[in-house]
Design goal:
Strand order of the largest sheet: 1-2-4-3-5-8-6-7
Helix content: 25-40%
Distance between the termini: 34 Å
CATH superfamily: Zn peptidases
Number of strands: 8
Shape: globular
Radius of gyration: 21 Å
Largest sheet: 8 strands, mixed
CATH architecture: 3-Layer(aba) Sandwich
Strand content: 5-15%
Order of helices and strands: HHHEEHHHEHHEHHEEHEHEHH
Length: 436
């Protein structure tokens, strides 16, 4: 009886975003600052036994950069062991095939989810808050299965930028006059928008903090990097990316991106959410070598990028005639209704917090098989194990300094509150693919 009372009391102390920030994540004309976000994450970490809060280092302006690890309480008790397994499988040094298979069966899939790298792309930062809340508060079978089978690294990519951008936007007392335009200075102290060009050289403190977790401490099998915005006439651009892909990559990593991209778009279609474009529908590729997402490809991580529209100020999806007819790039396009052009419909994507209810079992089974095979290949430990290839000439890791409503109907929609939910679909869909 005492244990039940304690458990109930603990659950009641979990603050919702609305209770903490004073608004729901995604409400029109509202942004959270990093100071508010950091305080919220600390409250969650203190109240939830599904979390472990990590300070991964200071930013260029001296703020603490957090990474919140989310998993089941049982997994968190053995977190050091799962981290060790991920490291061993990534480096693939001194392991036989049998040993690698044993480790893969014992370990948990590690999934990285970040947000906020480009601070004016505010959906990415705020989906991180919403995702944390959903993962720590929900008790449905799908969420519990995610927590039981994955270790999720939820990482803020640019604290300084969120503080600057949110304060700048919220400075105007009249909501309808708020704007992200004309920021007075760079949202990363030295690089601004080019902080996503720093991951091949790691000059910036934020880059070093992130790189240390990705390439020294954790080696996640999957990393998911959030950006804005996708091409006009779409809502979200995501994997798989346009051809040709970078042919130096191991094909398993490339087809892994394809598999998770298929899982994402299938979930969107199941939930009647149009506007996902892929392949030749966007300009995004696997060729740039210095970005947060693309650098992970050289470590054989399944690096995912999505680019979504939206922001705190409501906006329209423009009419792009070439995108109105379904094709392989955009199977379920955003269209118009009754010739209405330019009008802002109040329909929003409804909440996808129950993203578990319509998971296609066949897609799940496919990806589970894929993940297990990626961890325990039959073609040799030295080639690829745990998603990372190690060539004979490669030495150990260098030091960090070196190294639509629920109807299938047309939309031209007002987007912001819905976009946080839209990202939750992708995030949940991604995590669902991992458990075995």
């Amino acid at each position: 009886m005492v244990l039940v009372s304690v458990s109930s009391a603990l659950a009641q102390t979990l603050p919702s975003p609305r209770e903490h920030f004073g608004f729901n994540i995604g409400d029109d004309y509202q942004l959270a600052t990093y100071t508010q976000t950091e305080a919220y994450v600390k409250k969650i970490a203190a109240a939830s036994d599904r979390t472990k809060l990590m300070d991964i280092g200071l930013t260029e302006e001296g703020r603490h950069q957090f990474m919140l690890i989310v998993s089941s309480p049982e997994n968190l008790k053995k977190l050091a062991r799962y981290q060790e397994i991920s490291q061993k499988l990534a480096r693939a040094e001194g392991l036989t095939d049998d040993q690698a298979r044993t480790l893969a069966n014992e370990g948990k899939a590690v999934v990285w989810i970040d947000g906020g790298l480009h601070a004016t792309e505010t959906v990415g930062t705020h989906q991180l808050i919403e995702t944390i809340w959903q993962l720590v508060s929900r008790k449905d079978p799908e969420t519990m299965r995610i927590l039981d089978n994955t270790v999720i690294l939820l990482t803020h990519a640019n604290p300084d930028g969120q503080e600057l951008v949110s304060n700048w936007y919220m400075r105007e007392p009249k909501p309808e006059k708020r704007s992200l335009d004309n920021l007075p200075r760079l949202y990363e102290k030295y690089a601004g928008h080019d902080n996503n060009r720093d991951f091949f050289i790691m000059n910036l403190k934020e880059t070093q903090n992130i790189g240390r977790q990705l390439f020294v401490e954790w080696f996640p099998q999957i990393m998911y990097n959030h950006h804005q915005a996708g091409p006009a006439g779409s809502i979200l651009a995501g994997p798989p990316y346009r051809d040709p892909f970078n042919y130096v990559f191991d094909p398993l990593m490339v087809t892994g991106i394809d598999a998770l991209g298929a899982a994402m778009i299938n979930r969107m279609n199941v939930e009647n959410k149009p506007g996902y474009t892929r392949l030749g529908g966007s300009v995004f590729s696997t060729w740039y070598n210095g970005g947060l997402r693309t650098t992970t490809h050289f470590h054989n991580m399944i690096g995912l990028l999505t680019e979504i529209v939206g922001g705190p100020t409501p906006e329209d999806i423009p009419l792009v005639p070439s995108r109105l007819i379904p094709n392989g790039n955009t199977p379920f396009p955003v269209t118009l209704k009754s010739g209405i052009i330019g009008s802002r419909l109040t329909t929003r994507y409804h909440s996808t917090t129950r993203c578990s209810t319509m998971l296609p079992a066949i897609a799940t089974n496919y990806c589970l098989t894929f993940i297990r095979w990626a961890k325990t290949p039959s073609n040799g430990v030295a080639r690829i194990i745990g998603g990372f290839r190690r060539r004979k000439s490669t030495r150990s890791i260098r030091p960090i300094r070196q190294i639509q409503k629920n109807q299938r109907r047309p939309l031209q929609t007002r987007l912001w509150r819905s976009l946080a939910s839209f990202h939750v679909v992708v995030v949940c869909r991604l995590n669902i693919m991992i458990p075995s």
